[in-house]
Amino acid sequence: MSKEQRAKIAEMLRRPLSVNPAPVEEMRAGFATLMATMLVPEEIRTTESTLGGRRAVLVEPAANPRAGTILYFHGGSFVVGSPETAMTLTGNLVVKTGFRSFSLDYRLAPEHPFPAGIEDCVAAYRALLESGEDPSAIAFAGDSAGGGLSVTTCLAARAAGLPLPAAIVTFSAGLDATRTGESMDTKAGIDPLLTRESLKPTGEMYFGGQDPLQELLSPAVLADLTGFPPMLLQVGTNEILLDDSTRLAARARDAEVDVILDVTAGVPHVFQSFAGVLDEADQALDRAALFLTQQLKL
Question: Which of 113, 117, 135, 263 has its CB surrounded by the most CB atoms within 10 Å?
Fold first, then answer.
């Protein structure tokens, strides 16, 4: 059954490559429309909030809450997306762990290129700490670009002298703006959603003319992960971004950081979004929830 599920999802995600990228507002509307089709658990309640001067959505379990906070960063190539587009992911993590989650509406490119989003994420984390939250009870999590932010926010927080969170969870993280991973080529035509060409326009918007060869843009290539908290990196074998996660895992290993590289066969980018439709998505979220409950000190 799972093979049939994967095939249906891959077919849905495949679309002809446009030579000219759509206007930004059209891209954002299209992404919101796609993500609105994902299943969101009913056992949550959401509240509008503010964190570090930015809008955030507080997602809480409707029953049996536990102490602990997931600071979540949504995906969308740093150009599209919102807390709402990631609600299937935050909602499932909240239900499966019992922790609350703040999903941050960080600034997007091209209006606010690098490093604006990272600055917003660090400010949100700082606000949690200043509110009295213990870093040992906080985890960073994110998908795609937001997975990258989970790592780069930790790097920036460390540089700012802040205590680090208890754990990091990434789903199909974008971790290399240089696009030098072998999977960029070996998975070309296999990845049903992303191509090197499709990543170029949003990448240029986010880089803002800066050299991608720097730690906060390409942590899989350059980051010093010394002292990092335990990390769970989930990714699929059908992704051109596969090697973003495999190379970061190697850097974590070399820095003596606890790391779990969780690779699922035959699934697309951020396959966890298909919870309730794809068996592997539910299983991966179960593993992520277990990891979080093991790492947070409550």
Answer: 117
The total number of structural domains that make up the chain: 1
Is residue 197 part of the annotated active site? The answer reads no
Q: Is 269 a catalytic residue?
A: yes
Beta strands in the chain (DSSP E): 44-51, 54-61, 69-73, 100-104, 138-143, 167-171, 231-236, 259-264
Range of the domain at 116: 2-295
Catalytic residue check, 239 = yes
pTM for this predicted structure: 0.95
By the 8 A CB rule, do 239 and 194 touch?
A: yes
| Domain CATH for 128 | 3.40.50.1820
- Which residue among 101, 150, 269, 273 is the active-site one? 269
**103, 150, 239, 280: which one is catalytic?**
239
137-157: pLDDT as tens digits: 999 999 999 999 999 999 999
